[in-house]
Design a protein that fits this description.
elongated; four-stranded antiparallel sheet; 2 helices; 146 residues
């Protein structure tokens, strides 16, 4: 029975032995995980507003994100992405799970190459005005070369 290596370890898909001299991808294989935390206070932000989470540095490999709030977003949908792709990391959806950390991340981004350039990550509000009070926390987890 064959034992298949991960793409990160073997270099390509469906390898059964590490090629001679092959080094695993440093940004994701045994890399240190870093967190980017953003805290927001709901204040009836409108659908024309965005919430700036922060900047992921060049070379970062997105692992996952976590949303936590003490107040339901109600009808307001939250998408997490960039100005070029508003739902790059999380598709727009209402976030109604209060006091429940919720993991998000799209497979296409988790499996993508490291960022070639620094990237500002934003939360795009849509469908309705945000609640008038409450707290929203966005944590982005990513790795960098050791």
């Amino acid at each position: 029975m064959a034992a298949y290596l991960s793409t990160e370890l073997g270099g390509t898909a469906n390898q059964t032995a590490v090629p001679v001299g092959r080094k695993p991808v440093a940004t994701v294989y045994q890399a240190r995980l870093k967190r980017l935390r953003a805290s927001f206070v709901y204040n009836a932000q409108t659908t024309s507003d965005t919430l700036v989470v922060g900047n992921l540095p060049a070379g970062a490999s997105f692992a996952f994100g976590v949303l936590t709030a003490d107040t339901s977003s109600g009808s307001t949908t939250l998408a997490i992405g960039t100005s070029a792709s508003s739902a790059k990391y999380k598709a727009a959806a209402a976030f109604t799970a209060t006091d429940t950390p919720t993991v998000f991340g799209k497979a296409a981004v988790v499996g993508a190459d490291p960022l070639a350039a620094e990237e500002q990550v934003i939360v795009t509000l849509a469908a309705a005005t945000a609640p008038s009070s409450g707290n929203l926390y966005v944590d982005l987890y990513y790795s960098m070369p050791n």
